[in-house]
Structure formats: structure tokens, C-alpha cells
Amino acid sequence: MTTYLLAGGGTAGHVNPLLAVADALRARDDEASVLVLGTAEGLESRLVPARGYELLLVDKVPFPRRPNRQALGFPQRLRRAVAQVRTHIREHAVDVVVGFGGYASAPAYMAARREGVPFIVHEANARPGLANVLGARRAASVGVAFDGTPLRRAEVVGMPLRSEVIGLDRAATRAEAAAHFGLDPARPVLLVFGGSLGAQRLNEAFSDSWSDVLDAGWQLLHVTGERSELEDPQVEGYALRRYVDRMDLAFAVADVVVCRSGAATVSEVSALGIPALYVPYSVGNGEQRLNAASAVAAGAAQLLDDATFDGDAVRRIVVPLLNDRPRLDAMAAAAERVGTRTGTENVIALIDRAVTGS
What CATH number does residue 144 fall under? Predict the structure, then answer.
């Protein structure tokens, strides 16, 4: 029996691919032991037990960004975290460690190395986090979601995706999806969304331009986010939703999407072959723009600047694209070439290779 320890968490970007791999490992071999390493503070503390996996805890030890009192205590806190993971590895006879980034990954990589256990690194973003940069130097294998990610010995394996996305037949589900949102399946649909909390820039732009989208002969499915106070004009062809718990249905009915470019979003949209206009979130270290780069280079997507994205930009850029059917068809074909639905299987192939030593 093989014992796997999957390390990661903090945000959905780390937890969701981890859980996709965990589910696939358990489905492949119900006798395998699949454990998850995370912190008590991260999103994993809720999602992992709810999915039926044992969560082994490690202290949250952020890397210091500047010299201060917290930085002085960092080496001792890191040593304690590594010792915690080494204890977990020994007590559970772990055969392989797989890290997905986040606070749990750095001590997991260090502990695995000291215990002589092979470890795998998976990086979801085109700009890798510090834990994965350090871990990649000694990892048995390194998998990345996007081509061009600067990690040593990186192999492009794609993103482990949710099962409802992997198995989605958009054409077969379109009628059901359209009915779910009160739309006409025979007319094209523009999907606009910004994540569970929404994106104010996108909401403001389309609150000013939704009628232009409808005048172009398109329907609009606009997911505003739970905190949005945007008023619903309640007109035919415009479906406004605060939150959608069936994003698979939203993707099934979408002919074009306008959205942010988080790693999971880009991976899902590309895997489903949907033409996209990405408006990268401008806050952070610029990883959203980099996440979309390979899709843009392949001709599957277009980048729009957050600072200048407004109703006029929708009328000037988005609406003309909606009226350009040959270009949309070319973008959809390019998306299918650049995207993959086999990210989970590809990561598991790296794991198997590490376990067997091949």
C-alpha cells in the first residue's frame, strides 16, 4: 500500500488542484492512504476534512519579506515546522510527498529530503511562489501548469481540474445550462465573471454597456459576486447572478468569456476551448498577466488592461469581437490546442515515476 502526503493550502488556488489529485489517487486505488498536510488557518482546514481526508497540521511559517523582529525568529519557527512534518512522515510511513505551494509546502519539501522520501512540486501559477522555487531545486520532478514558468527542470503538465469541468460536454449540456439561467440556447452568450467576490472593474464596465452586448445580438450572463450591489435591469437576454454554484453550466452555455486570469480560471477556460478576453487583476506580483500569456500567444485569448477597462472598452473591443465569427472560431480552436483536461493524470504520472524511482 502506498502512502501519499499532499502538502499545500491557504487559498483555493492551492487547495483545489491538491484535492483533484487526492480524489484521483483514491479512485485509482481505494487501499492507498492519501493524507493532506496543511495549516489550521488556511482554507484546507475546512475543505480537506469535508472531502473525507485526514488533515495533518503544520505551523504556518511565512517567509520574512523584510528584516524585523519576526524575521529573527523565522529560522527557529521553520525548524519546528520541519520537525512536525518529519514526525508525520515517520508515523504514517509516507512513501512520497507532493507539494502544491502555500505555507505547508516549504517545510514538507525540507522534511521529505531529510527523511529520504521523494517529493514532487506542482506550480499552478506562471510566476512561481518562493516555496516551490526552493523545492524545485531538489525535487524528483517538477510539474507546471503553464509553459514558460521559471522553475528548474519544469515539465508542463497542466492544472489538475475539478471533475465537473473535466467531464463537461458543453454541446450536450447547453440546453440544460441555458434553461438554468433563463437564456435561449439558440443565441450566443457572453459570460462575464470575476470570482466569488466579483470584480468591481468588470461589473462597472458591463453595467454601462450591457445593452450594447444585447444590441449586437448576444445574450449576457453576468456573475457579479456576492458583495455586488449592481441592480438587475431584468430584461430578456441579460441574466444577472450574484453567485453561481454550477460554474460548469455557466461554461456550458458560454460562447465567449470576459474574466480575470487566475491560474485555475485560465486552465478551465482553455481546457473547455472557450475564447476569452482576460482582464488581469492589477494588484499582486503580476502573476495573472503571466498566467494568460500562453493562451494569448496561442491565439486563444486577448489581454485587456484593468486600468482602462470600462464601458467604452467593451463597446470598442469586446462588441466588435462578438461580431467577428471567423476570429471567434479560430480562438476556440486555439484554446483547445493550448488547454488540457489531463492535468490530474499528468501529475499522477510524475508521482508514480518518483515512487518507482524511474
Answer: 3.40.50.2000
